[in-house]
Amino acid sequence: MKSQPRRSLRRPTVPSLAETQSRMRGAVVDGEIAAIAPLLVGGRDPARRLAIHARHYQASLVAAIRTKFPAAAWLLGTAVLREAAQEFVRQHPPAGPCIAEYGEQFPRFLSRHVGAARVPYLYSFAELEWHLGQVAIAIHRPVATPDAFSALEIDTLMDTGLALQGGLHYLHAAWPVDELMKLYLTDTAPSEYRLASEDIWLEVHGARGEFHFRRLDAAEFVFGKAILEGKSIGNAAEQALEVDAGFDIGRAFTTLIDSGYVIEAAPPERRGEE
Amino acid sequence: MTSHCCVPLGAGIGLRLPHIAEVVVARPSVRWLEIHPENFLANPHATELLLEARCDYPISVHTVGVSVGSVGGVDHVHLKRVSTLVEMIKPILVSGHLAWSTHDGEYLNDLLPLPYDDETLRLVAAHIDEVQEYLQRPYLLENPSSYVGFETSTMGELEFLCELVRRTGCRLLCDVSNVYLSAHNMGYDPYRYLDGLPVEAVDELHLGGFTAEEDEAEPGSYALVDTHAARIAEPAWGLYAHAIRRFGAKPTLIEWDNDIPSFATLLAEAARADEVAAAALAPEAHRAVVG
């Protein structure tokens, strides 16, 4: 057995538990051990023992970020991504214990990282990667049957909302990052590749370990995104028509249904909004 | 409060995401499985597979994010999510840690140590009451793996745990590997620690691998780190046999969370746990202890 923990001659003033935990948080996240060290026992140098917790915090979360952004690492190099992840976990601890939800802010953080300054499309690329990861852990729920729509009164159809699959996301980017992502996914990157700025509107869909993405036109994108955000069919169509006066609501509506994206129709009395 | 009446004695395995599809398809022979709800709550696909697995295996829920030691209180949003999962899978046991991990809206992704004094005791007891009330079932509390303690503690870990049991009626999850590791790191006798736990309160045992790291402050000596990234160490098996003799046959979990091996390796560790337990409970082993 090891020697007994070292004891100082004077007991430190007993801080409240709140103060103790605040100091401990500073040590684990920020590496500021001076404030907590006098309170600790364990081994010859308890402050160094505390580094076990700090290392675990850092290593586990950096690993989580690296696991979620392998394409960004491919683009930037693993050293730059790791460095950015280390800084990210120091500045942005998780808000909750489900680490699958951690990292949504990383694309924005990464795009401002000093090592990423020469990659203007990095934010969009990393954001696309985040969404691919999220839809891949979704499930495909049973789609709404034709009965769900036939039961709707024609005069309430435009006030009806649609519940869509959880694995359906919409993403706008100012760079053709979908093409770049395809190069990564198919391992077919040429030695040189130039991206020109270009607005793209993506539908990202996935479930049970798989994902797909495809481009939409701007109006179809706005319509689908508005539906996903809980807007009624009519309201979503109005938004789409503002983008493109020739927007075909019937086609967009049918596409959502035929794609198996609609899981429920929610008539106005059940939506309780608008 | 109710809990599952059919808690299997013997070894179970911690079900981690890399194995879940294999378990659902192959249905390996194992008595029970334990999950961390935090791995499932934000992962609908994994939850779907878990619901399939629960048809064939008793499931225990072992939380890492219900922070009963946090001054800021239990995270009610998280507790509600855990409760929803508990309702869905009807686990045999629900457990968590004597530790804290949330601070001012942040989750620190580790099980951090607490000073053992009256203030902490009141706080943790109140939070355990809250969790048990919310879940409407007993909550099992796991002894921590310790690298440091607090100069300001006014009681030992054993006394603290026993008092929590007395005040809240919570149950204990004795992590035998943690006992070994903490005793090594903090300099006490792990066998005496086990002997001090209230027998009637221990409902589950854990066994996990740890890693020796050179103690930077003491070259040539080492600290044991609770990595769950290796086989169970030989001395921990010896301590486990002692635990079985003291507490009787208990559901015993094999935990392996990092550098996760094949499921077959975990099954082999589970089989060894059953062998060690059987040998410890054999009449001659009892006579040896009594004698």
What features would you describe in this structure?
The complex is a heterodimer of chains A (274) and B (291). Chain A is mainly alpha-helical and 274 residues long. In chain A, the strands form two sheets. Chain A has a three-stranded antiparallel β-sheet with strand order 3-4-5, with helices on both faces. Residues 1-7 of chain A have low confidence and may be disordered. Chain A has helices at residues 17-30, 46-68, 70-76, 78-91, 106-111, 122-136, 146-150, 177-186, 218-228, 233-243, 249-258, 268-271, and strands spanning 40-41, 161-164, 168-173, 200-207, 210-216, 262-266. In chain A, a hairpin with a 2-residue loop joins strand 4 (200-207) and strand 5 (210-216). In chain A, 47% of the residues lie in helices and 12% in strands. The radius of gyration of chain B is 18 Å and the shape is globular. In chain B, a hairpin with a 2-residue loop joins strand 5 and strand 6. In chain B, helix 7 runs parallel beside helix 8 (234-247). An eight-stranded parallel beta barrel of chain B has the order 1-2-3-4-7-9-10-13. Chain B has a two-stranded antiparallel sheet with strand order 5-6. In chain B, strands 11-12 form a two-stranded antiparallel sheet. In chain B, 42% of the residues lie in helices and 20% in strands. Chain B is an alpha/beta fold. Strand 1 (40-41) of chain A pairs antiparallel with strand 8 (149-150) of chain B.
